[in-house]
Structure formats: C-alpha cells, structure tokens
UniProtKB/TrEMBL annotation:
It comes from Penicillium cataractarum. It catalyses: a primary alcohol + NADP(+) = an aldehyde + NADPH + H(+). Transmembrane segments: none annotated. This is alcohol dehydrogenase (NADP(+)). InterPro entries: ADH-like_C (IPR013149), ADH-like_N (IPR013154), ADH_Zn_CS (IPR002328), CAD-like (IPR047109), ER (IPR020843), GroES-like_sf (IPR011032), NAD(P)-bd_dom_sf (IPR036291). Its EC number is 1.1.1.2. One of its GO terms (molecular function) is alcohol dehydrogenase (NADP+) activity. The keyword NAD does not apply.
Length: 373
C-alpha cells in the first residue's frame, strides 16, 4: 500500500506535435481525488485511435499528449470514497495489488438527469472524457497508458479476471468491447451470419467475439487474401472475401449477411458494395473511424432491402465487465505481439504500416515481474 502523497508528475511517452517521435519525459496528471484509482502500468495495447490522435488526423490534438487506452496495471492507490461510491458499486471490490484495466473512456457525468448515464450508456454521455486528449471536469488533461502510471476515476477501472493473461487482456479494453457491444446489441448469435470488414486489431477480435457469441457463420472481409489463412484456420472464420482480388464479390455474396461490422480505418471503402452483402433488414455498423467522409450512398442501397446503417462508440462499463467475463469463460484471446514500451516509436510505425498481427502490446519491464502470467 502506498502511503506517500500522490505524485504531482508522472513519466511516460509524450507526443509534442503531430510529426516528431514520442519522447520519454514527465507530464502532469490530473490531481488525485477521493474517487480516483492510481495504477502502475504493466501493459498497454496500441489501438488505431492512437495513430489517428498522434497525427492530429481527426482535428488538432491537444499536445502534449500521452496516448494508449488499452491499459493493464496493478492498483497502487485507491481514493477514500471509492469503496462507497453509489454511482460505481463495482469499484468497491477493487483492492490495492489487484490487476485492473482501463479502456478508451475515463469520465462521464454520471448524473441521474443525463439520459445516457441513467441508461448505463456512459460512452454516449455528452460530457464523456476520453482516456487521453480529453479534459476532466476540473479542467485537468487526461493522459493515457504509454506511461509508468495512470490515474483516473474508479468508475472506469475494471478488475481483470484471473483466467486472462495480462498482455492478452490489454486489447480487450478498447478493441474487444468496441466489437463486442454492437455484435451483442444487434443479435450476433445462433442462426445469424456476421461479416467482419477489416481484419486488423478490432476486426480479428470481431471474428473471435462473433464466434464466442455463437454466430452461426462468420465471414471475414479483407482487401487481399494475405490474412485468409489466419482468419479461417486460426481465428475460426467460416468464409473469407478478398474484396481487392475477387471479381464480382458483392454480387457473388449478395444478401448473405445479417450483421456487418466495419472496422475500416482508411479512405475509400466500397460502402455501396458492402451493403449489397446484407440480407433484408440487415444492419451495417461502422466502428472504424476514417479521417475523411464515408463514400456517398445511393438511396436504393437502403430502400431495396430495408437495411440499417449505424455506428457504435466503444461500450459501457457494464459492457466491458460482461465482455471480460465472456472472454475469460470462452478464452477469447487476442493475437498479440509484445513490444518493450521503450520501442514505442518503432511499434507505432509498424502499426501505421499495417504490420500488426493483430495487436501490439507494449510492456513496461518494471511492471512485468508483479503482473500475473
Ligand atoms: N468506434 C469506436 O469506438 C472505436 C474504438 C476503437 C477504434 N476505433 C477505430 O477503428 C479503426 C480500426 O482500429 P484498429 O485498431 O482495428 O486498426 P487496425 O489494426 O489498423 O485495423 C484496421 C483495418 O482496416 C482495414 N483498412 C485499413 N484501411 C483501409 C481502407 N482504406 N479500405 C478498406 N479497409 C481498410 C485493414 O484491414 P484489411 O487489411 O483486412 O483490409 C486494417 O487492418 C480506427 O479508425 C480506430 O480509430 C473506433
Ligand atoms: Zn481504441
Ligand atoms: Zn452523462
């Protein structure tokens, strides 16, 4: 148990602008409050969102910035009010020394008059705080997990089930819940055919979770056939479509899929052709967040089959708890490549170049010894 006063500064891998490499230096985290938890970071996944944010791809990032929102670590400090928080009953069971995780969200208003928060849909709260590049209500900046420590509201800190290895658990906190929440919401399960578009960090988890949820058929949809063996023989997809290689794919596979989940992160996706894959009343869910507009749509793409086009933002704290429980029960383990945290700049470049198979997880050496597995 830490008895020293909370530190005023942390150290981590800080971005100072959109182009230069991250440097290991100090930064000022939020002040520690009675509703916060502080951890020593042992692992942090690299998510596509880190890449967009570091290069100011969605608009200007508020530098200095520390990204990373697939965080695993060991609890070192628990605020005095955490055990009795009415808004966050699950936090009461968290103890110093526990292994916990933090995802892409670290704040919401949690007020009863907020429709999203009252419904347990915190990721749609208009006052949500992202784990990095955001601000807490006291105006302090939020900083992510490419660092030695993280601190923030207990409401967004989750116990990691013992059955999950530490490094593999990391990508579940953002990538895992981002695919799990819409797949479950739109009924991926027995009798349904699910298509996962883009087989990257989110997409490979999409195949795994669609299977874990009991979908009858899972189709992996990628630009080339280079990931086919991984998807079919490794991840368990039942079929594979290589959109850049298979002539007439949209016609061949038309009206075959109930739920399409698009994790595509780049420009120029063939949206109209993706929609041709849907059955009548099918749903297309966009979770990937390209930096430019989606392609235009012909009205008939929607009219002729009564399809729905929607999006989904990460998942709620309750979604995260249920996703972790399912992952532990069914052994949904992301495919990861561990990289020492000090290799973060090289790992980011490889992620940007599409080399991850399928998620890089940064490891903090000091933390490793005490983390489980
Ligand atoms: N909605 C949310 O709450 C949420 C949460 C987390 C992340 N995200 C976003 O989700 C996206 C994916 O993240 P990630 O971590 O999975 O990234 P990733 O590992 O880089 O995977 C993205 C995949 O998209 C496909 N792709 C990339 N550019 C494409 C293009 N121009 N056309 C068609 N397909 C393309 C690729 O799959 P193939 O090689 O198989 O074609 C790639 O593997 C990012 O934009 C990220 O910001 C959203
Ligand atoms: Zn993410
Ligand atoms: Zn709210």
């Amino acid at each position: 148990m830490t008895t020293s006063p909370p530190a005023k500064t942390f150290t981590g891998w800080v971005a100072h602008d959109a182009t230069n490499p991250l440097t290991y230096t100090s930064f000022t985290p939020k002040p520690f409050t009675p509703t916060d938890i502080e951890i020593r970071v042992t692992h942090c996944g690299i998510c596509g969102t880190d890449v967009h944010t570091l290069r100011s791809g969605w608009g200007p990032t508020n530098y200095p910035c520390v990204v990373g929102h697939e965080i695993i670590g060991i609890v070192e400090r628990i605020g005095t009010e955490v055990p009795t928080l009415r808004t966050s009953p699950a936090s009461a069971s968290i103890r110093v020394g526990d292994q916990v995780g933090i995802g892409a969200q670290s704040g919401a208003c949690l007020r009863p008059e907020c429709e999203a928060c009252a419904d347990g849909e915190e990721s749609y709260c208009t006052r949500m705080t992202g784990t990095y590049n955001g601000r807490y209500p006291d105006k302090s900046k939020s900083y992510g997990g490419f660092a030695a420590r993280w601190r923030g509201p207990a409401h967004f800190v989750f116990k990691i089930p013992d059955a999950l290895p530490s490094a593999e658990a990391a990508p579940l906190l953002c990538g895992g819940v981002t695919v799990f929440a819409p797949l479950r919401k739109y009924g991926a399960g027995p009798g349904k055919t699910v298509g996962i578009i883009g087989i990257g960090g989110l997409g490979h988890l999409g195949v795994l979770f669609a299977k874990a949820l009991g979908a009858e058929r899972v189709v992996a949809i990628s630009r080339s056939s280079s990931k086919k063996a991984d998807a079919v023989e490794g991840l368990g997809a039942d079929a594979f479509i290589a959109t850049g290689e298979e002539e007439g794919w949209a016609k061949t596979h038309s009206r075959s899929i109930d739920i399409l989940l698009s994790t595509v992160s780049g420009p120029g996706m063939p949206l109209g052709q993706y929609l041709r894959l849907l059955k009548r009343d099918g749903v297309f869910v966009q979770v990937g967040a390209p930096e430019d507009a989606l392609p235009p749509l012909m009205a008939f793409s929607l009219i002729q089959k009564s399809v729905k086009v929607t999006g989904s933002n990460i998942g709620s704290p309750e979604d995260i708890r249920q996703m972790l429980a399912l992952a532990a029960e069914k052994r949904v383990l992301p495919w990861i490549q561990k990289r020492p945290m000090e290799d973060v700049n090289a790992a980011l470049k490889d992620m940007h170049d599409g080399k991850a198979r399928y998620r890089y997880v940064l490891e903090n050496k000091d933390g490793e010894a005490q983390a489980k597995l």
